[in-house]
Write a structure and sequence with these properties.
Number of helices: 4
CATH class of the largest domain: Alpha Beta
Number of strands: 8
Helix content: 10-25%
Strand order of the largest sheet: 3-2-1-4-5
Distance between the termini: 42 Å
Oligomer: single chain
Strand content: 25-35%
CATH architecture of the largest domain: 2-Layer Sandwich
Order of helices and strands: EEEHHEHEHEEE
CATH superfamily of the largest domain: ATPase, nucleotide binding domain
Largest sheet: 5 strands, mixed
Number of domains: 2
CATH topology of the largest domain: Nucleotidyltransferase, domain 5
Length: 187
């Protein structure tokens, strides 16, 4: 397993079976300026055209502080993400080797370079076969309100504010979401 600079965060994996709890898992993260939430859930098969349980089972839930790199810096943001994922896996009785996908929606992902930077963090933490997805938290908010179809608009007014939209043909637009340095004071 790959080791990152924060090996101590992953110490709970020592002595656990290679697949942790034996179940393939997905980690879903919502990272913001106020807090970061990670859920751990099982992978569902859609081969027989059946839908997953509603609501889908959440095996573990973990909460940590800010993961917006624009607010706390790259080192602190990376450490928060790593800690909240390790906490969720620990609570689920599993390890990184059971993870098949990580989906991270975090405020502050405002440019493809932000996406690539955070993807490189995730790739350093997980085995090579893990699928990693990184988007602005507004994309996840829209997907959750449109049943996964990225078509429509979303407005977030939290610690910061952002309006984000996608057209049916895939064009996207956004307003605000620039953070307090550029006048996005949120609440």
């Amino acid at each position: 397993m790959k080791r990152d600079r924060n090996e101590g965060i992953w110490d709970f994996e020592h002595g656990m079976p290679p697949q942790g709890g034996g179940q393939d898992l997905i980690l879903g993260l919502d990272g913001g300026t106020t807090s970061t939430v990670c859920i751990c859930m099982p992978v569902f098969s859609f081969t027989d055209n059946s839908l997953p349980p509603d609501p889908p089972p959440v095996l573990a839930h973990a909460v940590a502080g800010c993961s917006n790199h624009n607010s706390v810096g790259e080192t602190a943001a990376k450490e928060t993400l790593e800690r909240v994922m390790a906490d969720a896996l620990f609570k689920a009785g599993s390890t990184r080797s059971a993870v098949r996908a990580v989906c991270l929606a975090v405020s502050g992902v405002n440019h493809p370079t932000d996406q690539q930077r955070i993807l490189s963090w995730l790739r350093a933490m997980f085995p090579n076969d893990v699928k990693c997805f990184v988007h602005n938290d507004a994309v996840a908010a829209m997907a959750s309100g449109t049943m996964g179809k990225l078509h429509g608009c979303v407005l977030i007014a939290g610690t910061g504010t952002i309006a984000y939209g996608y057209t049916e043909d895939g064009r996207e637009a956004r307003a605000s979401g620039a953070g307090p340095v550029l006048g996005d004071w949120g609440r």
